[in-house]
Design brief:
Blueprint: E1 21-27, E2 30-31, E3 35-37, H1 49-53, E4 56-58, E5 61-65, E6 71-74, H2 76-89, H3 97-110, E7 123-132, E8 145-154, E9 165-169, H4 187-190, H5 193-201, E10 207-210, E11 218-221, E12 225-230, E13 235-238, H6 249-260, E14 265-268, H7 272-276, E15 280-287, E16 291-299, E17 306-307, H8 317-330, E18 341-343
Parallel strand pairs: 9-10, 9-16, 13-14
Antiparallel strand pairs: 1-2, 1-3, 1-8, 4-7, 5-6, 5-7, 6-18, 7-8, 10-11, 12-13, 12-15, 15-16, 16-17
The structure holds pyridoxal-5'-phosphate and 2-OXO-4-methylpentanoic acid.
The site of pyridoxal-5'-phosphate (PLP) has 12 residues, from helix 6.
Length: 345
């Protein structure tokens, strides 16, 4: 195989069909062998559970070309276990975690000519997902499911790379206490589309969601967790009082990276009014797609506006250091002390 002839540096975060996907079906209480397919379409009954009661969960991770030419991915075991947690919450059969990792390796290796080259700024986005294919008409869990992985080469999630974005505070809620905010299910994103379109129409890149019980605490955005740096230089990571933030693998990794770099990391509930009072000098959105995208401003007439003085135009020094260290580990420029990197090819 030879590398695809793409303008890797100008890719956006979009879908492009690649050579292979992975597919595996669950029936009669067991997952089948599973394997690669060149069929990028899905055919199922009009009465499939996904179409009516939204039994679907998904994951997102990336494959990278390291500096030495290896193709690697980052902590796929964490995606495997989070997807199993998500599945259990929606009464779906968890996809076996070791099989998940094997499937990721298989589909990335088969598509290795689609993995963007080192230094291009692009990566191969890997999207595992599973959904109810079995027939249901009364409200109940289906008995048949399909697990798939699609891969697609992508550029940055937010246009403009390191240019700080401006976001707003959503007047809608993302996740209820004791709801599904802490799992990665499509249903959490369906309800975010309306506020997302509204934010875009008003010129904002994203929505910040507050806790829906009291609307006082910072939760997360539609597709990323929030990181803050306070005036004393501490890395402050908002915690949910109601367990309604998605446990981001990037965020949990950055907490460790921050500590490794000697930063003081504080994980605690953060009130939005602390941001308005000017307690924080940097803000970033972190996730697989977002990596760490700098937030320069939050604008809201209702909740109050914020400027992050050390990162108003581009990443501030702490977010930059965190991003460089994380992407350095992911591409093999910095030693992987925690065993996070899995070699694929
Ligand atoms: N929060 C939400 C709502 C997300 O969709 C994502 C993306 O996966 C994240 C946070 C970041 O999670 P991770 O770092 O595991 O990609
Ligand atoms: C990811 O970061 O992998 C996600 O799934 C976020 C999504 C909004 C693109």
């Amino acid at each position: 195989m030879t590398k695809q002839n793409l303008d890797w540096g100008s890719l956006d975060f979009g879908y492009r069909e690649t050579s292979y996907s992975y597919v595996c079906n669950y029936k009669d209480g067991a997952w089948d062998e599973g394997g690669l397919t060149t069929d990028h379409t899905v055919t199922m009954s009009e009465c499939a559970g996904i179409l009516h009661y939204c039994q679907e969960v998904f994951e997102g991770l990336k494959a990278y070309t390291a500096e030495n030419g290896d193709i690697v991915c980052f902590r796929p075991d964490m995606n495997a276990s989070r997807m199993a947690d998500s599945a259990r919450r929606l009464v779906m059969p968890p996809f076996p975690e070791d099989k998940f990792i094997e499937a990721v390796k298989m589909v990335v290796e088969a598509n290795k000519d689609w993995v963007p080259p080192f230094g291009s700024g692009a990566t191969l986005y890997v999207r595992p997902y599973m959904f109810a294919t079995g027939i249901v008409i009364g409200v109940k869990p289906a008995t048949e499911y399909q697990f798939r992985i699609l891969v697609t080469p992508v550029g940055p999630y937010f246009k403009g790379g390191d240019t700080a974005i401006t976001i707003t505070v959503a007047d809608f809620d993302r996740a209820a206490p004791r709801g599904t905010g802490d799992i990665k299910a499509g249903l959490n994103y369906a309800m975010s589309l309306h506020p997302y379109e509204e934010a875009h129409a008003n010129g904002y890149s994203e929505n910040l969601y507050l806790d829906s019980a009291t609307r006082t605490y910072v939760e997360e955005t539609g597709g990323a967790n929030v990181l803050l740096v306070d005036k004393q230089g501490n890395l402050v990571v908002p915690q949910s009082a109601t367990n309604s933030i998605l446990p981001s693998i990037t965020r949990r990794s950055l907490v460790q990276v921050g500590r490794d770099l000697g930063m003081n990391v504080i994980e605690r509930p953060v009130k939005y009014e602390e941001l308005v009072a000017g307690e924080f000098v940097e803000c970033g959105l972190c996730g697989t797609a977002a990596v760490i995208s700098p937030v320069g401003h939050i604008e809201s007439e209702k909740y109050g506006s914020v400027t992050f003085v050390d990162g108003a135009e581009t990443s501030g020094p702490v977010m930059r250091k965190l991003r460089e260290t994380l992407t350095g580990i992911q591409t093999g420029k910095i030693a992987d002390e925690h065993g996070w990197i899995v070699k694929i090819a």
